[in-house]
Design a protein that fits this description.
single chain; 3 domains; Gyrase A, domain 2; 449 residues; alpha/beta; 14 helices; Rossmann fold
């Protein structure tokens, strides 16, 4: 991190302004070489200056340049931001001049990576930045803001501090028994602490799964036989003719994707090919893909025909999805009833064509996922798969400690598992980390962030 980096920080295209960000020990020196305002170099920190970017005797653009000195910057390095007129040619030209004047083009996420490595943010706050950029709903935005603001980090740090106190007392009890004013740590006290920690970890895991829903949405796959109304249902839900609807069986041969925002949660809807036995090679590929998508779904919408009796294909589908979260949508309820539905579960009667009871379906989705119970006002969820994976490991290590207590392990043996838990909590916020993990995480950012 000894070099000075530069990148365009705004979306490229036609606009009022573009911002080019420069960070590093030579940021002020490099920009001073190409900026017409000679007061800039000696000006105080956190000031904005007017002038021109000039190169080889030519004016390139009229700009405003912000000067921010370390450590009171995002990266905790000297940072300069050049506000140019928007436009691909002008912006790229200024960046090109910076690169020929001593800057290196920043890697994706390198500004945020430097902020992390310099102690400005931790890993959960960094992940919150990604989520903030990608937030599609107000609730996802609130969750990301809380994460960027350190609510999730503070939660983990508090658990880590409690565990550190236990570890410190064990250390003193084992190695310095002559200190009488130190609290005596017993196996029963460790057991009590583990019960409290386990309860808190389970609560965080449960709430963080809600956070995943807010961030990534619900992968919702619509399945059923041909001509039961799957494509019509998709079109009605999203309010546009996205999928082709005909009376010909097998019209939908590949999946059709769309997005619906329901109660501030994104439904990633996928309409699939009708599932039936077929000799058509292309249609058969679509059927296999439909079954694969259903196996990976968070929610399945199984569409049946109100106007037809259950077929063997229907019954086979019902059996295949019985262990998944699913809703049985009995479509075409405006027609004469032929279906035997007494043993069907999670039933909703609709007519996609006539737009009947679509609200009943959306209410059922809210009920299944408790969407109305997900709150964001004081949200400190951990929204990344990485964090959830570590939390699950912590839960396992807590079980190891509790098992060790039952088996009569000594304090020094229990101390090993407790330190493992403490280290895992550190991995969540980045107190302990592997270089490859950091590189992979920040590579997900856009260039310039």
């Amino acid at each position: 991190m000894n070099d000075t980096i530069a990148a365009i920080a705004t979306s490229q295209g036609v606009g009022a302004i573009s911002i080019i960000r420069v960070s590093g020990s030579e940021a002020i020196e490099i920009v001073s070489k190409i900026f017409s305002n000679k007061k800039f170099k000696t000006a105080p920190s956190h000031t904005i200056h007017y002038g021109y970017i000039e190169y080889k005797g030519q004016k390139i653009d009229e700009v405003l340049v912000s000067k921010m000195l370390a450590p009171k910057t995002f990266t905790r390095e000297d940072v300069v931001e050049i506000n140019t007129h928007g436009g691909i040619t002008t912006t790229n030209k200024v960046l090109e001049i910076l690169l020929s004047s001593g800057c290196r083009l920043a890697d994706p996420g390198e500004f945020s990576k430097r902020a992390f490595l310099n102690g400005r943010i931790d890993l959960t706050e960094a992940e919150g930045i990604i989520d903030l950029i990608n937030a599609k709903t107000e609730k996802a935005h609130k969750m990301a803001i809380n994460q960027v603001g350190g609510k999730a980090s503070n939660l983990i740090k508090a658990l880590r501090d409690d565990l550190a106190n236990i570890l410190a007392n064990i250390e003193v009890n084992l190695n310095y028994p002559e200190y009488e004013d130190i609290e005596e740590i017993t196996v029963s006290k460790i057991s009590e602490s583990m019960d409290k920690l386990e309860k808190k970890i389970k609560k965080i895991i449960k709430e963080s799964k809600n956070g995943e829903l807010l961030k990534n949405g619900i992968k919702t796959v619509i399945i059923g036989r041909p001509n039961v109304g799957k494509s019509s249902l998709l079109n009605t839900l999203i309010g546009e003719d996205k999928a082709i609807v005909t009376e010909i069986q097998g019209t939908t041969r590949d999946s059709v994707e769309a997005t619906l925002i329901l109660d501030n949660i994104v439904l990633n809807l996928i309409d699939t090919a009708g599932i039936r036995k077929t000799e058509d090679v292309v249609e058969n590929i679509g059927v296999e893909k439909s079954l694969k998508l259903a196996a990976e779904a968070d929610l399945i919408l199984l569409v049946l025909d109100y106007n037809e009796k259950l077929t063997n294909d229907d019954k086979k589908l019902i059996e295949q999805i019985k262990d998944k979260k699913y809703i049985t949508i009995i479509n075409k309820c405006d027609l004469k009833k032929q279906i035997d539905d007494k043993n069907l579960k999670n039933k909703v009667y609709v007519s996609a064509k006539e737009d009947i009871n679509i609200d009943g379906l959306t209410d059922k989705i809210k009920e299944i996922f408790n969407l109305e119970q997900i709150e964001t006002d004081d949200m400190s969820y951990l929204g990344s798969a990485r964090s959830l994976s570590i939390l699950n490991k912590i839960e396992e290590r807590i079980e190891d400690v509790k098992k060790g207590i039952k088996e009569g392990l000594t304090l020094d043996m229990l101390d090993i598992d407790l330190k493992n838990i403490w280290n895992l909590l550190g991995e969540i916020i980045g107190e302990t980390y592997e270089e490859e993990l950091i590189d992979e995480l920040f590579s997900r950012f856009c260039v310039g962030k």
